[in-house]
Design a protein that fits this description.
- This protein has 182 residues and is mainly alpha-helical.
- 50% of the residues lie in helices and 12% in strands.
- The longest helix is centred in the first third of the chain and has 63 residues, at 22-84.
């Protein structure tokens, strides 16, 4: 017998009883009304809990699908990296020439004791791309790397717009003027 049948039975018992005092019958009727409300509230909670359980199972299934998709993407990316000859080390934050596993830098070259390309004295130049607004950072030593080029242009990695132009001839003139003044 479910709870609704039990409530119906109690109502029938109450109706069949012969109370000499009508106040007692009213009191028992009021108690049964409260019990009816409690039964309804518990039933609503059960329905909501079942809906919540279905929702959690749906989220869990979606999460499993997303994990599978990420695994496929990772495998595809690994295959692409293998085809074009790019290795994961090329994307590490550490610019160590040596093997970072042998030093204590933990990919933080500021505190690295091995031979790193990064030098604390290098100045970082940060400019904003005029086209897409991307923040582009580079070391000032990059401007001196191509000794044959008279003009060095730094491009935005996002939209390939020129974000910084460096003319070596102008800098050499400024340096020469500065030396003449001394």
């Amino acid at each position: 017998m479910d709870i609704y049948a039990k409530m119906a039975y109690l109502r029938g018992v109450l109706d069949g009883m012969d109370f000499e005092d009508k106040k007692e019958k009213k009191m028992f009727a009021a108690i049964l009304d409260v019990l009816d409300e409690l039964v309804e509230a518990v039933d609503d909670l059960n329905e909501e809990q079942e809906e919540l359980q279905e929702y959690v199972e749906s989220i869990d299934s979606d999460l499993e699908d997303a994990e599978e998709l990420l695994d496929i993407i990772d495998e595809d990316l690994s295959l692409v990296e293998e085809i074009i000859g790019v290795e994961d080390e090329d994307f590490d934050a550490c610019a160590c020439e040596g093997d970072c596993e042998d030093c204590d830098c933990e990919d933080d070259c500021d505190e690295c004791e091995c031979d790193c390309e990064y030098d604390d004295e290098d100045d970082v130049i940060e400019v904003e791309c005029p086209e897409c607004g991307e923040s582009v950072c580079f070391f000032d030593t990059m401007l001196d790397e191509d000794e044959e080029a008279e003009i060095v242009e730094i491009l935005c990695p996002k939209c390939d717009a020129v974000v910084y132009t460096f003319e070596k001839e102008l800098i050499e003139d400024v340096e020469k003027d500065h030396e003449d003044e001394e």
